[in-house]
Amino acid sequence: MAGASQGRRRAVHSLEAVIGEAIALLDEAGEGALTFRALASRLGGGVASIYWYVSSKDELLDRATDQVVVDHLERTEDLPRAADPLAGLRELAVALFDDIRLHPWMGKYMMRDAEAQPHVMIAYERLGEQVMRLDMSPRDTFHAVSAVLGFVIGTAIDLGQEPPAGADLAAGDRDSGLEAYAETWRALDPEKFPYIHLIIEEFVGHDDAVQFRAGLDLILEGLRRTSAGEPGADD
Amino acid sequence: MAGASQGRRRAVHSLEAVIGEAIALLDEAGEGALTFRALASRLGGGVASIYWYVSSKDELLDRATDQVVVDHLERTEDLPRAADPLAGLRELAVALFDDIRLHPWMGKYMMRDAEAQPHVMIAYERLGEQVMRLDMSPRDTFHAVSAVLGFVIGTAIDLGQEPPAGADLAAGDRDSGLEAYAETWRALDPEKFPYIHLIIEEFVGHDDAVQFRAGLDLILEGLRRTSAGEPGADD
DNA sequence: TTCGAGAATAGAACGCTGTTCGATAAGGTA
DNA sequence: TACCTTATCGAACAGCGTTCTATTCTCGAA
Q1: Are A118 and A67 in contact (CB under 8 A)?
Q2: B6: phi > 0 → left, psi -120 to 50 → alpha, else beta; which?
């Protein structure tokens, strides 16, 4: 054979491949698993090559986050916009929350730099346009969107924390983790911790998504009241 | 002189000193500044000595967070408990938010491991006891406390992000930072981004604390409605 | 066909990090 | 004196993000 196909092949990359493999790595093994060396070996190339496409790890994470948001926006592009602004807001917020939960690492980065993640702005805009339909003052509109966004992302971050290197062997491990906490709590003095004891059994086996929706509905209920009542009292 | 005071003195530490200096370091220079070497030089000792008191950086951060919570609990021990449960809940939530904002690094760690931070549980308990006075079902009580907590900590995390190594030279720089964002946003197409354009001027010069209180009041308003109305409808 | 410029790849090193190991000293007890 | 426990620390290790420099490939111009 006269072909020059012998010798070690050099890897061929692309920005899409770099971002894509980074997201895959993050999703599969968590934030701690994303290292330039691990990423390079996934790409089948050298470590330094990544810097041709991305100038730092910060930029890599910003781009990865933005890419996930792009996918989210495409997937929810034609969400059935409800007649009720609050129902529309709820749909968008739930969809955003669910997508962040699929990529627990990204919550932290969504709020960091709006310039580095241009598409995050579009997600904000969509939420904002629903709230605008409530005809409140610019200030109240801004506060309402901020509240919903803070709750969505904040809750997603809270729930998406990586466990502190504890036992995570078998599947269904989540239940036993919750049960372990509950065990500790049950040992607390019921006189001193009446609330904890009241909700222990609710906590065990609770569903994060249900918990999120319940909190969101509280905000939306408050928003319905506020928007129907006084038009933007100061403070 | 017959004294044996020559030669290099060995440093004398204590758990309180280690935690205290760690907190000081975090508060003064941010999360990235807390390294074992920096901490050791602050304590005037060697790096390895810190491991006598603390077995890992994770434990150090857990203990530091818990210590800040202890101080918070002491400071707010006798908050004037309002007659209205929601007013009491509001007081506690605002106090917690303000204290977290004084230590922006700690928000991330508060949710991580309840066992490693025993006093965080007490803060939860206090919030829960106010909500209990609303006489809702255990499930609704649990959801309400989770919502408030998620909003408090989530918002504190969002607002406490370290800027991505941008220009942070002079004081009053915050305004110019906001203004820089606003500049970018004003360049967006008003047709495509009506919400962004509506709130740009509200965003510039907005007060984080006011923004937080507005969101909190939405939740509380919703909570008032929900607790007065149907007694815990199933989703 | 040769040359050179640029795009793309990568090995090796640098400084920094959390962490571990082993040596060393001080205080109290038998 | 001998000895165990408590406490301290220098030195080293592996891993990290990042940079430097050299190399290969592609392709249009001469």
Answers
A1: no
A2: beta
Closest-approach nucleotide to residue A50, Cα vs C1': C9
Q: Which of A42, A230, A57 is closest to A140 using CA atoms?
A: A230
| Confidence (pLDDT) at A235 | 43
Reported as a pLDDT band with limits 50, 70 and 90, residue B230 is low
Q: Is the pLDDT of residue B234 over 70?
A: no
Give me the architecture of the A62-161+205-228 domain, per CATH: Orthogonal Bundle (1.10)
Q: How far is it, in rounded angstroms, from Cα B131 to Cα A1? A: 80
All structural domains of chain B with their residue ranges: 12-54, 64-161
**Residue B153 is which amino acid?**
I
Which residues of chain B neighbour A85 with C-beta distances below 8 Å? none
Q: How far apart are CA A154 and CA B173, in angstroms?
A: 26
Q: Between A161, A202, A217, which is nearest B138 by CB?
A: A202
Looking at residue B9, its pLDDT comes to 66
Whether the CB-CB separation of B206 and A138 falls below 8 Å is answered with no
pLDDT in tens, A162-179: 766 554 444 456 667 778
Check if CATH label 1.10.10 holds for domain A11-54. yes
For an interface test with A, the pick among B218, B221, B227 (most A C-beta atoms closer than 10 Å) comes out as B218
Q: Among residues 142-171 of chain B, which lie with CB inside 8 Å of chain A?
A: 142-147, 150-151, 153-155, 157-158, 161, 164-165
Residue type, A112: R
Could you tell me which CATH class the domain B12-54 is placed in? mainly alpha
pLDDT one-digit tens code per residue, B9-64: 679 999 999 999 999 999 999 999 999 999 999 999 999 999 999 999 999 999 99
A115 backbone dihedrals φ, ψ, rounded to 5° = -70, -35
Of B177, B201, B109, whose CA–CA distance to A162 is shortest?
A: B109
> Are A11-54 and A62-161+205-228 in the same CATH fold?
no
A113 lies within 8 A of chain B by CB: yes
